[in-house]
Amino acid sequence: MQAKYSLWTAIVSGLVACSAGEESAAERAADPTGGADSRPVVLFVGTSLTAGYGLDPDEAFPALIQRKIDSAGLRFRVVNAGVSGETSAGALRRMDWLFEREPPAVVVIETGANDGLRGQNLDTLRQNLEAIIALARERNPAPHVVLLAMEALPNMGRDYVTRFRAVYPEVARATGVTLVPFFLVDVAGVDSLNQPDGIHPTRRGQALVTERVWVGLEPVLREGEKGRERAR
Question: Which residue of the set 88, 115, 144, 200 is catalytic?
Fold first, then answer.
């Protein structure tokens, strides 16, 4: 058990070790339509895990979600706005700009691992998550929000870990957003599913993450598709 904890500590620690100035996948990926793509946007806001650190942007799980969307015959366009090293406070600061740049139909929020690594106040984490969701709700039309749950460092102590874990379902219940349980389950700490740094998922690991996220996201997208059809 201690070995597993040590591996997970290394994984989460690596999120902050990545350069916070790394160019995001969203900024690196060119729009093949030249900006003419009118499909509703699914905006992924997150850390290096979302950005696909160490991989081609097309191998990160948001890009794999796009393939699932296309295969399912759904009409959405994924935008990956992951930034390495970012905390929930950093994500909150970016939201207005992101919403103006890519007005979303769905927002997927992956943040908090770096807060946990730094032992930051959990009330602040909760407030940041709720503030991000509130900003989304101010949009007209308001996007559907999907929150990806994260786990804290085991070496932060049992009380902190337990309270950290509780933040995500508490925020989901209070705000009514869709919650996806810990999306790195069965990937975090598994050598064969992570890159040589032992931190970031390989292509195979990203594929497993994709399946985890898709379970929570697919019903949201299908409901959104039905809503557009009813509005026609």
Answer: 200
Marked catalytic residue, from 31, 70, 123, 197? 197
List the catalytic residue out of 48, 84, 88, 115.
48
Architecture of domain 2-14+41-227: 3-Layer(aba) Sandwich (3.40)
> Distance between CA atoms of 56 and 127, rounded to whole angstroms?
33
From first to last of its 232 residues, the chain has per-residue pLDDT tens of 444 444 444 444 455 545 444 444 444 443 434 456 889 999 999 999 999 999 999 999 999 999 999 999 999 999 999 999 999 999 999 999 999 998 999 999 999 989 998 999 999 999 999 999 999 999 999 999 999 999 987 778 999 999 999 999 999 999 999 999 999 999 988 899 988 987 789 999 999 999 999 999 999 999 998 887 777 7
For residue 96, indicate whether it is catalytic: no
- Is 123 considered catalytic here? no
**Partners of 180 in the β-ladder:** 148
Query: Model's pTM, two decimal places?
Result: 0.85
List the domain boundaries for the chain: 2-14+41-227
**Nearest alpha carbon to residue 106 among 204, 164, 39:** 39
| Catalytic (active site) residue 197 | yes
